[in-house]
Amino acid sequence: MLLAFSSPPFYTTYVRLPEEDEPIPTPIYNDPRYHPFFDHALGAADGSHIVTAPPLDERSASRNRKGGISQNVFATCTLDTLLFTYVLSGIEGSATDSTVFQMARQVDFRVPGDRYYLADAGYGFVDLLLVPYRGVRYHLAEWVVQVSTFVGMVTEKLTKSG
């Protein structure tokens, strides 16, 4: 079922990678706390584990760090409307966030020009993603809520359809 979300017709209808001239998201542009500092942010990027039941011979690779059997999904969304801009699903649960991100880059994930996505510290310092410094407390509760809502929506949709 996860493959259905990253394949036509669903993917080609509902998911669209942004262009280089994508406008600045309204919540950033209209808020002096974020504009002009995050003007080049295209959206948020995060991963989520979806419970799965693979064949027995694939279960060890699907075991995540918490001991469950899952598939890893990497997705990006816009900051203002929470529309999907990229989804890579079906990665074994044992893969780390940074590994899944590198896989997405090898497949077809691209970020135009000098743009980037906001992500959590689990991705480490890589180009194309702006992550917080480890050990620094940030006060971006609004973005945490938005990203958590986005990940919850993805998880709920994938769980209900599987």
UniProtKB/TrEMBL annotation:
Single GO MF annotation: nuclease activity
Translocase is among the record's keywords: no
Keyword Nucleus appears in the UniProt entry: yes
Domain DDE Tnp4 per the UniProt entry, residue ranges: 46-135
Cofactor(s), names only, from the UniProt record: a divalent metal cation
InterPro entries according to UniProt: HARBI1-like (IPR045249), HARBI1_dom (IPR027806)
Compartments (UniProt record): Nucleus
Record key words, sorted: Hydrolase, Metal-binding, Nuclease, Nucleus
Name of the protein described by the UniProt record: DDE Tnp4 domain-containing protein
Location, primary (coarse class): nucleus
Organism: Pycnoporus cinnabarinus
Gene Ontology CC: one annotated term: nucleus
Family the UniProt entry places it in: Belongs to the HARBI1 family.
